[in-house]
Amino acid sequence: MRVTEPQGGLILLAPLSGWSTPLEEIPDPVFAGRMLGDGLAVDPTGATLHAPCDGEIVTLPESRHAVTLRADGGAEILMHIGIDTVGLGGAGFEAHVRPGRRVAAGERLITFDLDLIARHARSLLTPILVMEGCGFTVVRSSENREIAVGDVLMEIASTAAAGRRDGTGELRSAEARDETAPGEARRVRVALEHGIHARPAAQIVNALKGLAAQISLVAQGRSANARSTVALMKLGVRKGDEVEVRATGEDSGSAVDAVAALLTGPHGEGGPPRSTQRSPVARAPAQSADASNPTSERPQAASNAVDVRAGVALPGVIASRGLAVGQAVRLAVREIEVTQAGAGVAHETLQLDRARAQVRVRLEAARASASNTAREIVEAHLELLDDPELTDTAQALIVAGASAAYSWRQAIRGSIEALRALGDARMAERVDDLLDLERQVLLSLGGNAGAAAEELPPDAIVIAEDLLPSQLVALDASRLAGIGLAAGGATSHVSILAAAMGIPALVALGPGVRRIAPGTPLLLDADAGLLHVDPGTERLNATRRQLERRAARSAAERAAAQQDCYTADGVRIEVFANIGSLAEAQAAARNGAEGCGLLRTEFLFLERETPPSEAEQHAEYQQLAEVLGGKPLTVRTLDIGGDKPIPYLPMPAEENPALGLRGVRTSLWRPDLLRQQLRAILGVRPYGQCRILLPMITDVAEIRSVRAMVEEACAGIGRHEPIEVGVMIETPASALLAESIAVEADFFSIGTNDLTQYTLAMDRGHPELAARLDALHPAVLRLIARTAEAAQPRQRMVAVCGGLASDPVAAPILIGLGVHELSAVPSVIPRLKALIRKLTMADCTGVARQALEQSSAEAVRALAMRLAEREIETV
Ligand code: PEP
Ligand code: MG
């Protein structure tokens, strides 16, 4: 990778792939204002940082988020992965070099977890800078284009004004100890949250620019020139360390004051105090002022914190991944005016009943055709529509003389206030539901029951303050390219819906969104978490080409999806689907599922007053078997209880439902229901297509009890053919007892969702823990490895049907651990198959072995990402 170097200058090669971007686009004044140095930023698509030239590693902080390299001629290059990443404390970064190491151009320096950083950093933009004062300057740089690692990125040249420095950034010893010159010294304790890292160092250097004093910082016996960011960073000063600021020369007093203030002052992290900065990772307050009034737009004048000019990239939180190019469409949100006074109790009562009835009819129709995710949301709305607290409160207000609309709004707002008072983040979704329902009923009251769908132009990127689920589903999905919301959270219902619809979406983009004019060209990068406003034709076109490539790739993957799946070296890996409805079974068949690895039968039992009869269940299972065209159908017995009560199954109150009557425990507690279900499954023709899967198993006694009931049921319906009975490995107990369970069970299916929840002792539905609840945690992987090992002597098939099976990045590890079947959400099956066809067992066992040795989920993910980068992006 050698490039001819210009005389007296140096070529810097792109250290990572992505999009080269002017520094001005970085949402940080220190970098954007070139305080640290000149250069450009890369909006990364790759997750490995390489050396841009030959040189020596000068600084690499413990947080591994940045690295400085000194080129042979003395140029110092800082590469800083993402913005505000020092606070990650090293999570998601793996360094391959140490300070003092010589590296060659193109050598790997740091690998990082793009996904994790995207979720937690202010921005992914990665500045590549020629450090201020190192004696080099940028001559030419390659901005606004797609770059690959090793492309020529910048040409730099030495300046005549290289200064007095010796190239190390540290003061020559004579200067450092110039005790004869008049001067000033002060000891201070460093208050900077993350010590002296790149940004505070740049601020110190910047603060000294107008002053003539020679100034140094002394820490732990080492001295550094306070005018050199590299030298300052190299001191490795942390919060709480005591340092001495020394200056000589006529304005030494002012110089010491300036540096001491930055080291100890409240604004030392480079801007206003953190609490007043908008952080895209902080969940946008679900109860923002705007959320309390869904039908009106906020005033725009007060929201000019972000300058949304062409080329600006607004950072947001990823709600649904993907890329979209299109034009901004502001959603016309109409304020619904309500009058307080009613026109009589009878009239208003009738109005409200009618409006609620209309909404009920629409919701029930929506439920019938909805996918799983949308159905859950619709069901939540239906439940709230008849909530007695809401209806009673509204009725009381009507009786007191208020209008139906006013009463309904007041009842809803009262409930919202009560939920907010709980201060529980998990209530945010309920608040969304209530606001949505308020709007739906008010629209019906206003005679606008059908709420005509918004007219969208093609490739619309809808931008709005916030969006309600009912507004989203009313949009024409064929024209909707993406969504960018100022507010919202990644786990809000609208985010979940967008993900289910496959529409790229960013939320919590902040007030800058309000300043985007309708029709503005937008690039919504919901992989990197950035909304690029009017990024220029070249970039838009490049992204369109990228989208075309993606579309072509996924078309090719779909075309090959119906074929059986083997690894590159001929090992059969079955790719099945998880289903929970007829529509999902159809999607599974379309996407090339080789069977169903998990039928969640709960869908038949919820939202009704009596359990489904045996005949009803049988008809449903038979229909699903037919849709799968004879391919295996794994029917899981009812996994209900705890937090999903059903009216015809009154359960004792439980303090801790996740650890209570769940899964097979509920079935054994109500054997009548299990017997019915078993008979319904056993009756499905042809015999042999269905297999039975038991949830939440913890020991062999549970399996033996169910087996006895299966035999009894077979006898009852006159069936002589055997049926396979497998168990879900989703408790640490079952993984640890897998040897003995293998004696009783015909196959294993690992439920990584619950296995992770119970292994890490983290509630799988807890929004604050969501980012840490990663099934690639090495503790979970060790339990999977143990299960697969235990299955071998008896040749039991091992499947994974938890969410990890739908994560392509995890597939090589799972296969390497000994998993034979992946049961995934239907839409990812073509992708999974394409990836598996590129892998060899040596790849898989290698990465699996390494994964088991890691000490954190982040480290495993980084490892998996490296293999994925090599294989997934090329398939
Ligand atoms: C699991 O726990 O991983 C699983 C597949 O079951 P469910 O998500 O239905 O609990
Ligand atoms: Mg489970």
Question: How would you describe what is shown here?
Answer:
- By secondary structure, the chain is of the alpha/beta class.
- 35% of the residues lie in helices and 19% in strands.
- Strands 9-5-6-7-11-3-2-13 form an eight-stranded antiparallel sheet.
- The protein is globular, with a radius of gyration of 31 Å.
- It starts with 8 loop residues before the first strand and ends with a helix.
- Magnesium ion binds at residues 695, 730, 751, 753-754.
Task: Provide key terms for this protein.
8-stranded mixed beta sheet, 27 helices, 19% strand, binds phosphoenolpyruvate, 34 strands, alpha/beta, 875 residues
Layout of helices and strands:
Blueprint: E1 9-13, E2 18-21, H1 29-32, E3 37-44, E4 48-50, E5 55-59, E6 66-71, E7 76-80, E8 93-95, E9 102-103, E10 108-112, H2 114-120, E11 126-131, E12 136-141, E13 145-147, E14 152-158, H3 173-176, E15 183-189, H4 198-207, E16 214-219, E17 222-225, H5 229-234, E18 242-248, H6 252-264, E19 313-315, E20 317-320, E21 323-330, H7 345-369, H8 372-385, H9 388-399, H10 404-422, H11 428-445, E22 460-464, H12 469-473, E23 480-485, H13 493-501, E24 505-507, E25 521-525, E26 530-533, H14 537-559, E27 574-579, H15 582-590, E28 596-600, H16 614-627, E29 633-636, H17 663-669, H18 671-682, E30 690-694, H19 700-717, E31 725-729, H20 732-736, H21 738-744, E32 747-750, H22 752-760, H23 778-791, E33 797-800, H24 811-817, E34 821-824, H25 829-838, H26 841-853, H27 857-871
Parallel strand pairs: 21-22, 22-23, 23-24, 27-28, 27-34, 28-29, 29-30, 30-31, 31-32, 32-33, 33-34
Antiparallel strand pairs: 1-14, 2-3, 2-13, 3-11, 4-10, 5-6, 5-9, 6-7, 7-11, 8-10, 12-14, 15-18, 16-17, 16-18, 19-26, 20-24, 21-25, 25-26
This protein binds phosphoenolpyruvate and magnesium ion.
